């Protein structure tokens, strides 16, 4: 349905447009509807009867507020994914595997659904720092208590140091 105003981003009236501009508006509208369903620029271009380059030109020139309308179509696609996720969660049983849906949500709404992993391994850094300082600062001396340590593996020595530092986190 076409209204008197083309879009909230422009004051042009659809009725005042030339026939070629009206055709361009209708193609943009068809493109955006297809893009909203598929989030594929090439599929939307084919569905609206234009080339991919034409769609990119629309973006570059931003005629009829195309960039803002494209962003809105993109948002609508993402919201459709959220609705699908909600429906699936409500319908699934305990054995359902929603990996594909989770992957799509991660890809399309990363700020909301992608887990942020922050590694904070201060214990390992402290062990390495201590080992470096020990190797630089102290000369190697052999005495009777050190010979017992020589029989202990390097992994056991590291575990001992980690345990002294409070264990592995």
Number of helices: 9
Number of strands: 2
Main pleated sheet: 2 strands, antiparallel
Please, how many domains?
Answer: 3
Question: Structural class given helices, strands, pairing?
Answer: mainly alpha
Strand order of the largest sheet: 1-2
Q: Approximately how much helix is present in the residues?
A: 55-70%
* Beta-strand fraction estimate: under 5%
Low-pLDDT runs of 5+ residues are 1-5
Distance between the terminal alpha carbons, to the nearest Å? 61 Å
The outline comes out as elongated
The helix/strand order is EEHHHHHHHHH
Radius of gyration over all CA atoms, rounded: 31 Å
Mean pLDDT: 79
Protein model, in words:
The protein has helices at residues 19-38, 41-48, 52-61, 66-91, 99-108, 110-113, 122-137, 144-150, 154-164, and strands at residues 5-7, 10-13. The chain has 169 residues and is mainly alpha-helical. It folds into 3 domains: 5-77; 79-113; 122-164, no CATH class. Strand 1 (5-7) and strand 2 form a beta hairpin. It is elongated. The model is unreliable at 1-5 (pLDDT under 50).
Short description:
The protein is mainly alpha-helical.
Tag the structure with descriptive keywords.
169 residues, mainly alpha, two-stranded antiparallel sheet, 2 strands, 4% strand, elongated
Write the layout of secondary structure elements.
Elements lengths: L4 E3 L2 E4 L5 H20 L2 H8 L3 H10 L4 H26 L7 H10 L1 H4 L8 H16 L6 H7 L3 H11 L5
Antiparallel strand pairs: 1-2
Helix pairs in contact: 1-2, 1-4, 4-5
């Amino acid at each position: 349905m076409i209204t008197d105003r083309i879009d909230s981003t422009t004051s042009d009236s659809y009725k005042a447009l030339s026939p070629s501009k009206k055709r361009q508006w209708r193609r943009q509208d068809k493109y955006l509807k297809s893009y909203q369903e598929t989030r594929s620029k090439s599929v939307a271009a084919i569905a609206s009867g234009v080339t991919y380059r034409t769609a990119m030109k629309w973006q570059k020139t931003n005629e009829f507020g195309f960039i803002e309308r494209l962003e809105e179509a993109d948002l609508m696609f993402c919201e459709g994914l959220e609705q699908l996720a909600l429906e699936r969660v409500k319908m699934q049983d305990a054995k359902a595997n929603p990996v594909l849906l989770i992957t799509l949500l991660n890809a399309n709404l990363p700020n909301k659904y992608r887990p942020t992993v922050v590694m904070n391994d201060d214990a390992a850094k402290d062990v390495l720092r201590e080992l470096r300082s020990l190797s630089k600062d102290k000369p190697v001396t052999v005495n009777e208590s050190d010979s017992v340590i020589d029989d202990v593996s390097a992994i056991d020595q590291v575990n001992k140091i980690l345990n002294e530092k409070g264990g592995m986190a």
